[in-house]
């Protein structure tokens, strides 16, 4: 059974769910994505024909759906997935963006990238093999990146005779592990991606399973309350001052609401200056709005003339982020050419603010498999994770990452090569 | 949760694209928007209008003109540029042929020779950020490209050496001579674009809607018979009701059979179609499995 096609009139009420997929080699991740696309009529006949032709030419025994997502020449030649691929499908309820992250090569870098914007992460395991080292690693990275919803898909149930016992054992083991991670909302679903069981509709082979199919879960998982509507955080991106004879004296602060709800009349504070004013109006190109909330891009005007520029942040006087130059953070190192070293200086980008930062201390390197902390570590290499202390040249307007993914996340950039070398999650700022 | 705090997927995509455009203008010095008169660049231009309102769009637009144009599209381009008071830069392939920068390929298609012409204009005007309307759902190489896509001093893309892109923290840093291609519509699909065209009541060149045209059938696609495409061998011209799903170089862009003469009908048609837009209409993508990746490496969009 497959989801109906979306007619013209229906689509505008849909919301958007971004999810990341992770799995080890041969867990059937590509087959699962192929199945989701196929069952939602999002797979096109020319794409399928191209994949079939390449599969046949290479002598594959079955149509290799991995070829759908392995778009780069090197990936096809080496038969591996190198980079995060983005895929799109929609049902009448939701539009989905899949960040498909490869399971082996550069797994941490890719997984962290895909998870950084995900509302939900989908981890696949092979029912015959159960949890493997990578499953735990993927779950850990999802919790580190604070992905609010986690789904474990126990795949290839057809190869274990649709056994409830096998499923329960894996589900219990994973649930116990996830509890240690402060894992968010967790669901476990038995599936067969190849046969389509519990993908778009409930499987008849597993009457003992009483939960929803995967697609039903993806369509209905409640994501609206994942947004932080409490803490007003509006990083100023750009100051709009038209040089025009028809629009005079306009001064608006353009940006995307990171969290909270802004309304005209609200008393606000501007950081880092600490000056206060009231919101005069919230403008969009379609006219003023009565409120602004995430993820809206708007232009805020204030009642008073205050000197505000890019990188400043508008919040409420009684609920402000830290104005901090000493940052404690978890770091994932993403660069293969040079390791992170204590004393290293980097450009740091946090919301719309760019500063310089020096690494003061590396407290420990974390083994993502055992969660063991190596306090003797002097550097972080590619794909390694650690906790460190940074000192910045100018203050960041920062929250803990666990409280706010936008005002709690940052990247480090190598000032010589301009490469993005690290992803950072703020633990403490003062 | 009051329903008022719900955001439709289209509003979320719009907000993301506007954020991306503002980041570029805030962080890079000389942006330009690639405007072909195609539907994606028309949507991009609308987003630029919204991102900076009530100010004017703070960058020029550029058209890489292959000389193989649909007249309806050129007319549209010039009208839109005038309405918005924009500065238009034309990077002309015919001029580059004359000056010897590029040589006409033997098959007469100019898709590939656009790239040196584009790069020449980027160098001449010292553009450091180029907005393109490419979407990740279009093609498998594009599915792996960043929103901020770094190009070296030769305009080349290195797919194995892309900058990781986390959260909405885009890295636009580059050295002199290098540049960033920016794709604000990365997460939009063809259907999203059409829904947005309907929502914003955007005017499009007429060839996007069903009309009668004399065509020939070649490689399973319908090509308009015009000054660039003549029947070969046994090909018999016939009249068909068609529309264009994409608008590219007129010598290699095909039409599809369609009765969709309004935006609502096009949306229904796109929602029901089982063939990708590039697969249905672009001869240039059929060269090889990795045709798009190879062109992108050279500096193509």
From TrEMBL, chain A:
Keywords: ATP-binding, GTP-binding, Nucleotide-binding, Nucleotidyltransferase, Transferase. Pfam families: GTP-eEF1A_C, GTP_EFTU. CDD domains: CysN_ATPS, CysN_NodQ_II, CysN_NoDQ_III. Pathway: Sulfur metabolism; hydrogen sulfide biosynthesis; sulfite from sulfate: step 1/3. GO terms for molecular function: ATP binding; GTP binding; GTPase activity; sulfate adenylyltransferase (ATP) activity. It is an enzyme of class 2 (transferase). Belongs to the TRAFAC class translation factor GTPase superfamily. Classic translation factor GTPase family. CysN/NodQ subfamily. Heterodimer composed of CysD, the smaller subunit, and CysN. With CysD forms the ATP sulfurylase (ATPS) that catalyzes the adenylation of sulfate producing adenosine 5'-phosphosulfate (APS) and diphosphate, the first enzymatic step in sulfur assimilation pathway. APS synthesis involves the formation of a high-energy phosphoric-sulfuric acid anhydride bond driven by GTP hydrolysis by CysN coupled to ATP hydrolysis by CysD. This is Sulfate adenylyltransferase subunit 1.
UniProtKB/TrEMBL annotation, chain B:
Residues 281-301 are annotated as: Disordered. GO terms for biological process: sulfate assimilation. Keywords: ATP-binding, Nucleotide-binding, Nucleotidyltransferase, Transferase. Residues 31-254 form the Phosphoadenosine phosphosulphate reductase domain. SUPFAM superfamilies: Adenine nucleotide alpha hydrolases-like (SSF52402). It is an enzyme of class 2 (transferase). GO terms for molecular function: ATP binding; sulfate adenylyltransferase (ATP) activity. Belongs to the PAPS reductase family. CysD subfamily. This is Sulfate adenylyltransferase subunit 2. It comes from Asanoa ishikariensis.
């Amino acid at each position: 059974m497959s989801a109906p096609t979306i007619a013209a009139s229906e689509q505008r009420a849909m919301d958007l769910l971004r999810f990341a997929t992770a799995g080890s080699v041969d867990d059937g991740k590509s087959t699962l994505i192929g199945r989701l696309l196929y069952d939602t009529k999002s797979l096109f006949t020319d794409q399928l024909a191209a994949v079939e032709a390449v599969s046949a030419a290479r002598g594959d025994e079955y149509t290799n759906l991995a070829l759908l997502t392995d778009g780069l020449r090197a990936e096809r030649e080496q038969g591996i997935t190198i980079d995060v691929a983005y895929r799109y499908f929609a049902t009448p309820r939701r539009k989905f963006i899949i960040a498909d992250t490869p399971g082996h090569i550069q797994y941490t870098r890719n997984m962290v990238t895909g998870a950084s914007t995900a509302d939900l992460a989908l981890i696949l395991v092979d029912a015959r093999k159960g949890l493997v080292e990578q499953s735990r690693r993927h779950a850990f990275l999802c919790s580190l990146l604070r992905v609010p919803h986690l789904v474990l898909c126990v795949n290839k149930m057809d190869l274990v005779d649709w056994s409830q016992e096998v499923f329960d054992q894996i589900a219990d083991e994973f649930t116990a592990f996830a509890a240690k991670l402060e894992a968010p909302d967790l669901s476990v679903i038995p599936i067969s991606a190849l046969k389509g069981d519990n993908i778009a509709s409930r499987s008849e082979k597993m009457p003992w399973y009483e939960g929803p199919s995967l697609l039903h879960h993806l369509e209905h998982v409640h994501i609206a309350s994942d947004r932080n509507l409490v803490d007003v955080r509006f990083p100023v991106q750009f100051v709009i001052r038209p040089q025009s004879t028809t629009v005079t004296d306009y001064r608006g602060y353009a940006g995307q609401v990171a969290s909270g709800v802004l309304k005209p009349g609200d008393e606000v504070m501007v950081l880092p200056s600490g000056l206060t004013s009231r919101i005069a109006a919230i403008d969009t190109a379609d006219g003023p709005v009565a409120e602004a909330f995430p993820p809206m891009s708007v232009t805020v005007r204030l009642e008073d003339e205050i000197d505000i520029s890019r990188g400043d942040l508008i919040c409420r006087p009684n609920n402000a982020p830290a104005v901090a130059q000493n940052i404690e953070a978890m770091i994932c190192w993403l660069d293969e050419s040079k390791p992170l070293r204590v004393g290293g200086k980097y450009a740091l980008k946090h919301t719309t603010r760019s500063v310089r930062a020096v690494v003061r201390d590396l407290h420990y390197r974390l083994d993502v498999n055992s969660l063991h902390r190596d306090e003797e570590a002097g550097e972080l290499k590619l794909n390694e994770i650690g906790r460190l202390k940074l000192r910045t040249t100018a203050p960041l307007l920062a929250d803990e990452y666990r409280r706010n993914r936008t005002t709690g996340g940052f990247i480090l950039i190598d000032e010589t090569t301009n490469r993005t070398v690290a992803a950072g999650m703020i633990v403490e700022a003062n | 949760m009051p329903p008022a705090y719900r955001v439709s997927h289209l509003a979320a995509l719009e907000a993301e694209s506007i954020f991306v455009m503002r980041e570029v203008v805030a962080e890079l010095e000389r942006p330009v928007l690639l405007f072909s008169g195609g539907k994606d660049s028309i949507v991009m231009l609308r987003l630029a209008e919204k991102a900076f309102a009530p100010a004017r769009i703070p960058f020029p637009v550029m058209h890489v003109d292959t000389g193989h144009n649909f007249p309806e599209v050129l007319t549209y381009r010039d009208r839109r540029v005038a309405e918005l008071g924009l500065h238009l830069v034309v990077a002309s392939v015919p001029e580059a042929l004359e000056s010897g920068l590029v040589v006409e390929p033997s098959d007469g298609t100019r898709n590939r020779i656009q790239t040196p012409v584009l790069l020449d204009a980027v160098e001449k005007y010292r553009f450091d950020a180029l907005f393109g309307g490419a979407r990740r759902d279009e093609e498998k190489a594009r599915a792996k490209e960043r929103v901020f896509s770094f190009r070296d001093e030769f305009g080349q893309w290195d797919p194995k050496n892309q900058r990781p892109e986390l959260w909405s923290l885009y890295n636009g840093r580059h050295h002199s001579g290098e540049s960033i291609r920016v794709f604000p519509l990365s997460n939009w699909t063809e259907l999203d674009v059409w829904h947005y065209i309907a929502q914003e009541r955007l005017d499009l060149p007429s060839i996007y809607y069903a009309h009668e045209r004399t065509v020939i059938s070649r490689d399973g696609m319908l090509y308009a018979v015009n000054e660039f495409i003549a029947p070969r061998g046994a090909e018999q011209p016939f009249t068909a009701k068609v529309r264009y799903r994409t608008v590219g170089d007129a010598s290699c862009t095909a039409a599809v059979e369609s009765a969709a003469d309004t935006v609502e009908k096009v949306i229904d048609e796109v929602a029901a179609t089982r063939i990708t837009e590039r697969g249905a209409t672009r001869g240039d993508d059929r060269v090889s499995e990795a045709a798009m990746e190879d062109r992108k490496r050279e500096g193509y969009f």
